[in-house]
Amino acid sequence: MALEWTDIKKWFDFKQMKADKAEWNKQQARIKAMPADYQVVIGEVQNYFWHFAGGDGMDMMAGIYDLIDFFEEGAANNVPVLDLVGNDVAEFAENALREMQAKRWTDNVKAKINKRVAENLSKLQ
User: Fold this and answer.
1) pTM of this prediction?
2) In a domain, 27, yes or no
3) 66 lies in a domain?
4) Three-state SS string across the chain, please?
5) Residue 48: pLDDT above 80?
6) Does residue 36 belong to any structural domain of this protein?
7) In a domain, 54, yes or no
8) Structurally, how many domains does the chain consist of?
9) Could you tell me the superkingdom of the organism this chain comes from (predicted)?
10) How confident is the model at residue 67 (pLDDT cuts 50, 70, 90)?
11) Are 42 and 71 in contact (CB under 8 A)?
12) CATH number reported for the structural domain that contains residue 36 in this entry
């Protein structure tokens, strides 16, 4: 699949990059305003997301910002962070990532495996 000029052009839209960076910094400041235990958990959730992000990760930004809203509300209501997400923070992160329907690098691996299997099985028939 060849890249179109519009695809390439979006990578060099410096005004948009600057706006995205400003929004990211604004959202991260919201996290820094939360209690320390919330900062630890949301930091780990974000790290989990970045470990599995496919492409540039921009498709995850809205979901991350929604999660910040979720955590902010919990902190405002004095809910202990593990009561909010459960004791298995990694499972919470996995479920959140699944709900976001963001691209993952593992999706590419799965697609390649299935393609190879289909090609090799078709040769056997």
Assistant:
1) 0.71
2) yes
3) yes
4) CCCCHHHHHHHCCHHHHHHHHHHHHHHHHHHHCCCHHHHHHHHHHHHHHHHHECCCCHHHHHHHHHHHHHHHHHHHCCCCHHHHHCCCHHHHHHHHHHHHCCCEHHHHHHHHHHHHHHHHHHHHC
5) yes
6) yes
7) yes
8) 1
9) Bacteria
10) very high
11) yes
12) 1.10.1900.10
